[in-house]
Amino acid sequence: MCECCCNSLGFCCTCLYGIGRSIPLISILSFMLFLLGYSLAIHGRTKTNQPLEAIGVTDLTALLHDLEVVFFFALVFNGLGLAASFLASGKTRELLFQKADYCCTSCFQFILGRCTLGFIMTACLIILVVDIVMLSLVASASTLVLEVLGACSQADLLKSPVSMTLQLVTGVTLPLEQFDAICRSDLGSGFSTLIAGTILIVIGQVLIMVTLSSNYTKILLEPYLAPREKWSTDYGSASDAAA
Question: Which parts of the chain span the membrane according to its record (predicted)?
């Protein structure tokens, strides 16, 4: 009776352990960072789009206009990468991509593993390049935004020469009314939100690429692992070392 209970308890613990190590926690965290970053970036764009266009940051605003399109493709391929991470983690990977004895199984493993994951990695790499470009544009525009915000803080003292002073400092020519509209907008808080969002986007996308490359390597190596290496409880013991 006690032996039966111990065996049942051991089986349950082994099953829970297999389920636990089959959950790709880093991939889930990366996907959450990606979603949070894009939500912040879209929220920041709504506050900064018009002021940025007014001060002449056309490259960044052009990219931000297509932010929903970039987010859609990123959501699709990052979602596929997250789904692939579940297939390439822990016991699920060991069951799906272990050494195959039949040609059909090997073809299925190639299509589901190397082919599909390689395509997802390529698409996610392109998305990462776009995210880095967006972060670079945001970083390059930050100096100009800070100068404009600094001029806004001195607008009451500068009075009529404010437009001329802004042109001398930043090279941007603005009518006084348009400058006042920029100062009354949420450019400061919106741009801070945009910067935070783009940083989280890049961090999340980098982590997604790292997990995808790790999963790709594990899938490639899985067929070459002998069952004893994967399942034996005494693997690495003194008897194995002596052999």
Answer: 23-42, 69-90, 111-139, 194-212
